[in-house]
Design a protein that fits this description.
The protein is mostly beta strands and 155 residues long. Helices cover 0% and strands 52% of the residues. A hairpin with a 4-residue loop joins strand 7 and strand 8.
């Protein structure tokens, strides 16, 4: 949805995906992108959104129809994941960005169970030691926290 000026796209445009037939337990977002246009060309801010959870997966800006300046991207969720506290109902879970594992553990009846390792900041850089810490938590029944410690790796 957006507006036209002299038959050309102008201003903010928001695009949507067609709703899909999916398992009711898997979330779906119809929002696809938000972008600015000037005289029919992409010009200004651009954001593309994940179909599953609706969070941004790519953003940056255009100038006269071409990508311009700094762009950021992040992977969409894997499996049924939108909320890091309840990504899957059962089984093993591993989430990662392109370079490293972000979290790893097991779900039982929709709750975290056993040992979970989660990077404090999955987008940290090598020189940011405190942000790259791994929090190791051990969960018991009903997702009750049994223990917690800090580590420097997933190993």
């Amino acid at each position: 949805e957006g507006s036209f000026k002299s038959d050309l796209r102008e201003g903010r445009w928001t695009t949507y995906r067609e709703p899909e037939q999916r398992d009711a337990g898997i979330p779906f977002s119809t929002l696809e992108s938000k972008q600015m246009y000037a005289a029919g060309q992409k010009h200004g801010s651009f954001e593309r959104y994940d179909a599953q959870c609706g969070w941004w997966v790519e953003k940056g800006s255009y100038k006269e129809g071409r990508k311009h300046g700094e762009w950021s991207s992040r992977p969409g969720p894997r499996y049924y994941s939108c909320d890091p506290s309840g990504m899957a109902s059962r089984g093993s879970w591993t989430s990662r960005n392109r370079a490293q594992v972000c979290s790893k553990g097991t779900y039982r009846d929709g709750l975290k169970y056993g040992v979970w390792k989660e990077r404090r900041d999955c987008w940290c850089e090598a020189g940011e030691a405190s942000n790259c810490e791994v929090i190791v938590r051990n969960y018991g029944n009903e997702e009750m926290l049994v223990s917690e410690e800090i580590s420097n790796s997933f190993d």
